[in-house]
Design a protein that fits this description.
The protein is mainly alpha-helical. Helices cover about 75% and strands about 0% of the residues. The protein has 12 helices and no strands. The longest helix is centred in the last third of the chain and has 25 residues, at about 250-275.
Length: about 280
């Protein structure tokens, strides 16, 4: 999860830097292209390509479509609202995992998990401050991306029961490259990389792959409701980056809302951990 935290933070900064130069579909296309090159190369070098199969292929498609949608919403959000606010709203993904896991993973919705979900949604209200002035496209897309990321997490958890990480990452990059080419090229105009922006696109591609490798590995050895809350350390890190690099104000209400969201998740994390002790 430490590798995942660092990688997602790097992606946010690179995505902000590329705003206005490439649209989100183009960023996702180049990200996926880099991912395909890396995954295929490593699979061939290590012999892991033998693990790639077509079992649960439809689930792979649904998983990657959910991620593609969530990632495009996320990339848009990081260009229009403060990075700390994007991350705070993204942190509601564990709450959606709690709410939706009975349907997708067959996990039981306990009273503690229900309490965590309620606290989380209170936190959303504090972060978003749903007034005419507080609600905008960035807030809506950031909040929506959390739902799709939760679906991604749960589909990934199901896939780890029968598939290797190599197979999951292979289909992640290949299918999203197809999605990206279709969506970026539907208007017949795709912006090409330049010497200035190419390294940032490469960074997004590598960081995205590392983030998913780390997250998938974590999910393969621990329950989704235990792994995901660790990601909260990203908020203070990205808030400081936003302040130093983009002169973004440290909004106290974002931290208050995030603290409420964290409290709900931490209660659930504490109970889950001690239940296994």
């Amino acid at each position: 999860m430490g590798g995942s935290i660092s990688s997602f933070s790097a992606m946010a900064v690179a995505g902000r830097e590329l705003a206005g130069i490439y649209d989100t579909f183009e960023i996702m296309m180049y990200r996926s292209f880099v991912g395909v090159c890396v995954v295929v190369s490593l699979a061939l070098l290590t012999g892991a390509w033998r693990q790639i199969n077509t079992r649960n292929f439809s689930l792979q498609i649904w998983r990657n479509l959910a991620h593609f949608t969530g990632q495009n919403l996320w990339f848009y959000a990081v260009t229009v609202i403060p990075l700390a606010q994007v991350f705070a709203l993204e942190f509601t993904s564990p709450l959606w995992v709690i709410v939706l896991s009975p349907l997708i993973l067959g996990e039981r919705l306990t009273k503690v998990r229900a309490l965590a979900a309620v606290l989380g949604f209170v936190g959303i209200l504090v972060v978003a401050r749903p007034t005419i002035e507080g609600i905008n496209a960035g807030v809506i897309t950031a909040a929506a991306s959390a739902i799709f990321f939760a679906l991604t997490i749960m589909f990934t958890k199901r896939l780890t029961r029968t598939q290797t990480i190599t197979t999951i990452l292979f289909y992640l990059t290949v299918t999203q490259l197809v999605f990206g080419v279709v969506m970026a090229g539907y208007d017949g105009d795709i912006a090409l990389p330049t010497l200035t922006h190419g390294p940032l696109l490469l960074l997004i591609g590598v960081a995205g792959l590392v983030a998913h490798y780390c997250l998938t590995t974590a999910l393969s050895i621990a329950p989704a409701t235990v792994v995901v809350p660790i990601d909260f350390i990203r908020l203070p890190v990205i808030a400081i980056i936003g302040m130093l690099v983009y002169a973004e104000a440290l909004d106290i209400w974002v931290f208050v809302g995030a603290a409420i969201i964290f409290a709900g998740n931490y209660i659930n994390l504490w109970v889950e951990t001690h239940k296994r002790a």
